[in-house]
Each structure stands twice: as structure tokens, then as C-alpha cells.
Fold this sequence. Notes:
The complex is a heterodimer. Chain A is of the alpha+beta class. Chain A contains 7 helices and 5 strands, in the order H-H-H-E-H-E-E-H-E-E-H-H. In chain A, strands 2-3-5 form a 3-stranded antiparallel beta sheet. Chain A has a two-stranded antiparallel sheet with strand order 1-4. By secondary structure, chain B is mainly alpha-helical. Chain B has one domain. Chain B is built from 12 helices and 7 strands. In chain B, helix 4 runs antiparallel to helix 5. Chain B is globular and about 65 Å long. At the A-B interface, helix 3 of A face helix 1 of B.
Amino acid sequence: MHSVSDQLLHRLREARKRRALSWWERTYLPAVAQGLWLTSAHFWRNLFLHLAHRAGLFRSVPAAATIQYPDERRKTELRLRTRHRLTKREDGTPRCVACMMCETVCPARCIYIVAGEHPDPNVEKIPKSFDIDLGKCVYCGYCVEACPEDAIRMDTQRHDIAAYSRDGMWLDIKELLNPGTRAFSEPPEKFVQLSVEEFKRLPSTPEPPPPGTGLAPS
Amino acid sequence: MWFDLGIKLAVSALILGGVLSFAGMQTWLERKQSALMQDRIGANRAYFTLPWAWAAPINWLLRKLGGLGILNVLADVMKMFTKEDIIPAQGDRFLHTLAPFLSICFALLAFSAIPIGPDVELFGRTIPLQVADINAGLLAVLALGSLGVYGVILAGMVSGSNLATLGGLRAASQVIAYEIALGVSLVGAIACFGSLDLPTIVARQGQLLWGWLPRWGVFLQPLGCLIFMTAALAHTKRIPFDLPEGEPEIIGYFAEYSGMKFGLFFLTDFVEIVLVAALTTTLFFGGWQVPYLTPAGFQCPWGGSVPVSHLAYVGLGLLSFTVKVVAFIWFFMLIRWTLPRFRYDQLMTLGWKVLFPLSLANIAVTGVLVVLIT
């Protein structure tokens, strides 16, 4: 009786043996014909579908796998970690209490927080500035895990970040509170410090779309 | 005499313009066909608009053409013409410039002997739709096609670059390996049609076999047709026979070329595809003949006929030739985007040990059969 490993080895050896090609197969003509058949079938199918789409037919059957970025965007996965944002209280101030948990846990050390006193005695502290250097960020999500206040999330559905320099990847607290307000073509403002009153006066952008949808093209 | 000259010039202009526009549109065909074969969309972004208000309908058309990717051809040409023309310091200035012109000239000259349609009866004259009625036209086409490789070898030798030289040498060895099979594979067809004159070959393909099958070369010489198409594909130097270019390892004989001189090599490839498609059509697929169409009209083998006027006959012939050529261009493009490249030794094995003996055997069998039948 062979052991299981013997049987497995035997099967592996059998699988590695190449079958001798017949005379007809060695001309490679059937293989060439098969390949041409496959590619031309794709060609005619896609040509027919493109023409049918022009006429408004078979719209539900895609003729190409292409996603026409930036006119169309890919649907994201539910669990995808995208660019960070800071959640806000109802009065527009950040929910963050500047406990430094995220800055401490961050393996890339890309979070920079300057803590300040909050005028409300019920709130312990508030970040005067909160900066993330996306050029360093590794998108591990530890900051989200570490936050005791649900103040930082990675659900903006934005993952197409491009800038002309490393500095251009800098996110200050205004952009983190209201994703989509900063123009990435311009040089960043670093360590912007805002008071509680200035936080309340910031124009607010809409909530990001729910996870798994992907950002609609702007 | 001046009238004849004018007619010849008009026919040459028609053929030259047709060939060049086919070659130019192949960049578009290549982009779009490969995209469709690979479930992609392909080039669809390049377009420009005119700034004036009255140009609105033109702008609408330009947008549509841009969406189809046709304006990319224009963008290609503009890029080629405006790029810097670099001649390497170690290279030979004169020969470096001469090489691409040699290459394109011989490729275009080979079209002179190919008949693109039936003789036209106009103003009491017979006008052949062919530039030069050479009585050994087939040999002329083959000779001119083979001369084209001098441009390629020259480009490799005078560039002063080892990689370009390698590409040129590969081109030389590949062409020797395949031109022989190419020529020998045609001997069977010549024996069947009994002529080297291309119009005669086309005319004889207008007859019928057993009263119903068009007497096309592909039915008389199936093996010869296969060998010819393989060797002709090798002649165009494109995948799966693109050893002279060999982009992954040596960039090829045009490694030291830029701008429109490189563009001419690029164009040569496309012109040669048109040439090979036209030759395959002429020799094996009836040329401009439409099945069952005679100068009097359609003659169905099972009886019944439809009369056709002379001009319609000419028009149908031209259309038939064009359709066949386009179909072959499509087919060669399909092969180019389907098959992987041969290894160098596989290429030589195929040329010397498979195609050459096969074409010799084809001659022997054809010769015996022709003698037995006639």
C-alpha cells in the first residue's frame, strides 16, 4: 500500500510527463487555427456589440472590459481603504481629541498633530493642526483602528491621488475635514492651525458615498 | 501619345494613392482591430476643433472621427514629421538617409505589375488597369520585393550601432530563408496557369473547374498557397516573423532612426502588407475576378444569367479586388495579434527544413499532375 505522499508524488510525475505530439499536431497548424479562431471570434463579437450599442441594442452586454477613466470609475470593494478624512461634530469642529494614538501607532510616521485646549470643559483637547503626508502613508489603516473616538476614517472613496511633487501629497486639516476642497495642482499649506471658531466657519462638503460604490466622476 | 501618358499617370496615381491610403489607414486598423480582439476600446481620444463659428459642422465631424480613433493617424504623421532627425556620428550620413528611401521605393514599385481591375473600354481605347504590362510581371514583382531588403540591411550596416547591425543581419538571413520558399512555392502556380504574366494569370482564374468551382489558385495549389502566405508573412517582417526588429532584445535595424525616416520604415511594413495581400489575391484568389462574372454578365453554373454593363463589370472587378485585399490585410493583422514570435532557430528550421522541401515536393507533384492531365 502506497502512502499518501507516494501517491501524490506519483501523480505529480505523471502530470509532468509530456504527451508526445502526433504528426498533425507537430505541424502546429491546428494550434494556429485554434488561436486564430479564438481571437477572430472575440473580434466579430465585439464589433457586433459596438455597432449594436450605437443602435441602442444589447446595452447590458459590455463590448469591452475598459473602464473609461476619468469619465467612468471603477466600483470599489466594501473593505477598500481609501483616502483619510476626519469626522466632525455637529457644530463643525473635528471629533478628534488629539490623544495622539494614531500618530503613535502609525508605522510610516506620516501623521502630525498639534494639540490645543478646547474652550468647552467637557471636551478635553482639540487638534489645532492635523496633517497627513500621503507620500509616506502606507494605507495600513492602523490609525482608524487605534482611534477611540471614530474621528478618523478611510472611506472617502478617493484613491486617485496625483501631484507634481512629494510636498503636493500633503493633506492639511481643512482638506481632511472636507475632502475634495484642495486643488492638488497647487503647493500645499502645511501645519495649518485653526481655532474652534474657524472650524465652525469652514464650508462643509457632502458626506462621501457609501462604501463599495466608488466616487462618481466630477 | 500624350493621351496615353495622361491615362498611365492617372492609373499610377490611382494605384499609388490607394496603396498609400491603405497603408496609412492600417495604423488605425492595427489599433482598433487589436483592441477589439483583446476586449479593449482602442484609440478614441485624439481630436482637434476649429475655432470659428461657421466650422461647427466640421467640428462635429472631427469629434466623431476622433471618437473612432481615425484622427490618431493624423497625429502620428504630425509627430513623425516634427521629431528631430538624428544621424549617429559613427554612421554614414548619405547611406543612412538613403536606406529608408530604398526600402519604401522598392515596396511601392512592386505594385506596378499588379492588375487591379479588368481592361476598360473607353473612348474606343483599351485601358489596362495596371501601371506596367511586363510580360514576366510575376518575376518583376518578386525581384522588386526582394530588393526592398537592401534598404533594411543597409540601415543596419551604416547606423554604426551593433544592435542595428544585428537586426540587419537577421533580416538578411531571414529573407534568404524565406524568399527561396516564396519563389519556389509559386512555380507550381506558374505551371498550373502556364504564364508569368499577371493579367493572364488573373484571366485564367476566371474559368471554372468542373463547371462550377472558380479556377482559383487556392483550389489548384492549396499547399502552394499556404507556403506562399507563410513566406510572404515572413517577408513583411512582422510578428510572428519580426526577428529583424526583435523589440524585446535588439530594437532592430531601425534602432538609430528617428522622425520621418523611421516613419518610412514603418510605412514600408504596411505597404508590404498591402503588397502581400494584393499578391495573394492576384495569384491564389482570382485577382479582380468575381465568381461567375464574365464580361457579358453573371453566368450561373446551374443556368440563368444576368447581363451586366461594361462599366458595372469594371466597377465590380475593382470592388472585388479591393474587398479581397482588405480581407487579407485583416487576416494578416489577425495573425500578427494572435501568434507569438518564433525563436531564431525555429524560424530557420521552418524556412529551410519545412517550407523549402515542402515547396519542392509541391513542384514535383504539380508537375506530374500537369503533364498527366494535358
